[in-house]
C-alpha cells in the first residue's frame, strides 16, 4: 500500500511545481507587458514633443521668410541709392545698410557651406565669384575663378578655366541648377589633375637631364619621353604615356619603341611599365635610373 501513496504524492508535488512555474511565467509576462506599455507611452510622448517642436520650427521659418522678403524688398530699393549718401544719412538709412550687409554676409556663408567650402565672393551684378584652388603634393598652384549669375537660372557669366577643360559638358552632366556642389567637385578634379600632370612635366624637365621631352599636348594627356636603355651599346627608346582619364595624374597606358624590338616584350620592361603606370612619372624615372633600366 505504500507504493501507490508515494506515486500520488509525487504526482501532487509535480503538479504543484508546474503550477508555481506557470505562476512565475504569468508574472513575468505581466511585468513584460507593463514594461512594454511604459516604453511605448514614453516613445509616444517623445514623438509628440518632437512634432510640436517641428511645428514651432516651421512657423518660425515661415515668419523669418516673411521678414526676409520684406527686408530684401527694402534693400532692393536702397541699392539704387548712393552708398556714401546712405552712410552719411539718417540713422534709419545706416541701420538698413547694416541690415543689407548682414543679409549678404549670411547668404555668402550659406553658399560657402552648400558648395563644399569653396571661396565665394559677392559680385556687383547680383552674382557670386567662386574660386577653385589647385595644388600638387602640398604645393599650391593656380587659382581658377567662375563668376555666376544667380538671378533666375544659374549661369556662368565669366571664367578663366583653360579652354581644353570641357566646361560646358561638365555643366550639363553635373546639372548645375540642382547640384552645384557636384559640378564644382568634378571641375576641381579636372583642374587639379591637369595642374598635377603639368607639374610632373615641369619636374621631369628640371630634375632629369638625361631624359628628353619629345612631345606634350596642352592638356598634358600625352607625354613622349626619350631616354637611353643600357646594353653593350646604349640604345635610344621612346616612351609614350597616355592619360585618358582626365581626372587623374597617373597614365592609363604606357608603351615603348626602340631599335631593339625585343625590348617591349621583355620581362624587365613589363616591370618598368607597371612602375610608370602606378607612380608619378618623375618618381618612376628616379627608380628606373637607380635600378639600371635607363641611363
What is the residue-mean pLDDT, rounded to a whole number? 80
Order of helices and strands: HHHEEEEHHEEEEHH
- Rg on CA atoms, Å: 37 Å
Number of strands: 8
- What is the rounded distance between the termini? 113 Å
Give the structural class.
alpha+beta
Tell me about the largest β-sheet.
4 strands, antiparallel
What does this molecule look like?
The protein has 295 residues and is α+β, with helices and mostly antiparallel strands. Among the domains are: 115-195, Copper Amine Oxidase, Chain A, domain 1 (2-Layer Sandwich), CATH 3.30.457; 208-290. 56% of the residues lie in helices and 19% in strands. It has seven helices and eight strands. α4 (167-174) runs antiparallel to α5 (180-207). It is flat.
List keywords for this structure.
Copper Amine Oxidase, Chain A, domain 1, alpha+beta, 295 residues
